[in-house]
Design goal:
Cell wall formation. Catalyzes the addition of glutamate to the nucleotide precursor UDP-N-acetylmuramoyl-L-alanine (UMA). With 451 residues, the chain is α/β, with parallel strands linked by helices. It contains 17 helices and 20 strands. A 9-stranded mixed sheet has the order 7-8-6-9-10-11-12-13-14, with helices on both faces.
Amino acid sequence: MKKIETFENKKVLVLGLAKSGEAAARLLEKLGAIVTVNDSKPFDENPAAQSLLEEGIKVICGSHPLELLDENFELMVKNPGIRYDNPMVARAIEKNIPVITEVELAYMISDAPIIGITGSNGKTTTTTMIAETLNNGGQSGLLSGNIGFPASEVAQTATDKDTLVMELSSFQLMGTDIFHPHIAVITNLMPTHIDYHGTFEDYVAAKWNIQKNMTAEDFVVLNFNQDLAKELAQKTAAQVVPFSTTEKVAGAYLDGDTLYFKDEAIMKASEIGVPGSHNVENALATIAIAKLSGIANEAIKETLSHFGGVKHRLQALGEVNGIKFYNDSKSTNILATQKALSGFDNSKVILIAGGLDRGNEFDELVPDITGVKLMVILGESAPRVKRAADKANVPYVDAKDVADAARIAYGKAEAGDVVLLSPANASWDMYKSFEVRGDEFIATFEAIKGE
């Protein structure tokens, strides 16, 4: 960890806790800052705030009082989920207080080079694939960032022998100024989080921040399946390394059933340990970064062949009586479910879908669910999902929750079938998070297996 003096005796406000806020507060205190933490959750229900107070850090909980910003703060470190139109953030900007996210802090102190991964879908899988490939190839890849390990915490113990493999959301990237990864990948760009960003153009601009400080000595890996990526490739100082499943490019590409890097065959697409065309794209991005990092082909092939997926992202749970179960609870939008379905024979799939009603119809899903054996539908959005099922001529049944849906699906399935939880919806109508939803599916599978 670099011993920087940037924050010594400077008043810093950490807005919002969760894992990243807690890590940022502790790091700033260690760097000599005068730290105040402000979180909306009441103190009595806030173990993180209680812990920080015990360590001597000032905490203000239960609300976001605007008058707090009259205390001459020189910096605000914002939780990524807090929007820029939040009154506290807006007032800070009015007062010319810089607003950053904790990944900027991580960069400032890190002795380790950074590989940054962002995109609309596939971030977590690709981040995990890259870290595992580096580790299997004799290097040290440390998972960090939006994947559940606060970057500013991981960076404190990383050395120049490590590499921070950092998943980055658009929210985090908006709060960067000097952040500078050596290699960056954008898996894909789709219209999502528009409620936060306002327009797709602003969302893309936030993602594109990942490369804004890159030079000709750095690399940006882009998905040339998308024309947008080809346009962006013209607007960076970094060396562009493309990947594609549809054309031969000067990077990683699919030709027939073989994955190549610059005309060098690496492995068969059919050998990738997780199904789906989207995972071929994720594997190509991983291959590009692995080759740029000097990883041997054998280590790349071995890692990707044995890759078992990420929890809640098309996670293979196993099988009971010849019926396979896949947990794809992290599919909280239509595109993610489309990608999940691409890896299976629809005639063998019993799809569990539905969740939070965001007011959108599911017509885009109709071609992808056509031919599905059965849908088990649940949640607030059930009427809308059923309309799509009707248009696709797919039979469906209702379920009251995920556990009920898993049991119904198992009861209707035959040997050779797949029970796939891929909701195409957020979880918040019934569950605190997609993780809780997925954990219920896993627990039900384990119960069925033990009966």
